[in-house]
Amino acid sequence: MEQQSITADIIILGGGLGGCMAALSSAKLGMKVIVTEETDWIGGQLTSQAVPPDEHPWIESFGCTRTYREFRGRIRRYYKDNYPLVEDAKNNDRLNPGNGWVSRLCHEPKAALHVLETMLAPHISSGKITILLGCQLESVEANEDLIESVLIKHITSGEMKKLHGSYYLDATECGDLLPLAGAEYVSGAEAKAETGEPHALEQADSLDMQSFTYVFALDHMENADYTIEKPEQYDFWRSFIPAHSRFPLFGWKMGDIHDPCQDKEIIFMPDGKEPMPFWTYRRIIDRSLFKEGSFESDITLINWAQNDYYLGPIYEVTEEEKQKHLKSARQQSLSLVYWLQTEAPRPDGGIGYPGLRLRGDIVGTEDGIAKHPYIRESRRIKAQYTITEHDVSLEIRGDQGIKRYEDSVGVGSYHLDLHTTTKSNRGFYIPSLPYEIPLGALLPVRMKNLLPACKNIGTTQITNGCYRLHPTEWNIGESAGYLAAYSIINQVTPHEVRENKQHLEAFLTLIQNQGIETHWPENLKQ
Fold this sequence. Notes:
Blueprint: E1 4-7, E2 10-13, H1 17-28, E3 33-37, H2 66-82, H3 87-90, H4 109-125, E4 129-133, E5 135-143, E6 146-154, E7 160-164, E8 167-170, H5 177-181, E9 185-186, H6 192-195, E10 212-213, E11 216-220, H7 234-239, E12 253-255, E13 263-265, E14 283-285, E15 299-302, E16 308-309, H8 319-342, E17 356-358, H9 360-363, E18 380-381, H10 389-392, H11 394-397, E19 408-412, E20 416-418, E21 428-430, E22 435-438, E23 450-452, H12 461-467, H13 470-490, H14 494-499, H15 501-513
């Protein structure tokens, strides 16, 4: 098969939130950009992985980039223009289509896909951005500190393309470009002696990674039966008791994440008493917001502890091992569906909710399971500056307040949220301060034309727990795109931008003018 060769200014591997924003910011500065994406949907966490945005409490006013705020406004406009909302909802400036309690803006994955495609559309039409869907990274040609080309393969047709650019941005979900390029990187857990972090392991373990999740969509049709065929691994998952728990994985009882010695009981369906039932946790359609008869049921996305998969990682392992864990993770989610439909205890003393229906149309698949697993933790570059627990932990920083960086290229806020890991089965939820994104964390220790553009910046496993969320990944990608474009325009390397005071000031002024907030307000109230 003939191999096509394509050249652009910037090559972006991965079409998730970071990749999309890197493409947008680069194109705004006149760059020609190629984006590759393994699935047939751009948008990553928000679309193919079906996870509504996890956001901080100030998000409606500040603490994100201008484009992220524009995105949120466009989502709301999408519903107001196209859906039969009741009058109060239509007039609500802060409309939350699902009224999910995880986020101030719970919405359908396809809404995010539509808005992202619309935001990129002018640059796609002009030829500045080319998106190659259904393509995965195969190999990399590198010469010492520089990447010279990457080879991609269309997953279905097998067609190969060689891509040449001045800069290569890794926005893949697992940091796939890093090992192929020979870049220095970290995976899994670091050792306490290396990072000095109180919650780090005593010994490093590169395979002790956070769990990943196959999300799925459900609605509930009362007096109907949509029970799926019993999954192949159901008996295993039905009886599975996690090593860190005394309760079965499938059940309404679990240890409290803040105090494992205390039992916590989940309420599944709203009962009028519990303010936060799991049904409304990541609900993306609240039918009460729409005119009568528009929706027969609410629609919700299931991303719970019960379908977090931590029996093994899907990178830094053989292809056989990867496929085994991907299959088992899908089986886990399907088994959770089947348990909910057939055996889940109900408050009335009965068991099962047979009217629960998998909504494949919501996530764009036949079986109702999201196109791609939700990846919390990626390979991470060894960076000029590594963000540690000391930079963000409320307990450690105390009265020092927010850690501020002279080279900050963005802001974010979220708890240090580590989901159960694959080897040590650790998990925690550590209070944190709002944080900034230092440029040094975007700069590899050696490679000159490779930049991270999502969850693969210079964090530790612990600080990845807050820097992995939607608005932060968006900001990282947007800043990385501007950095690559600025470097090309000014004929300097990204490292020189940070090292040279004039270039650093000029670059920070550029991104600030483009709507990137680089610092939190001095008088921010916690």
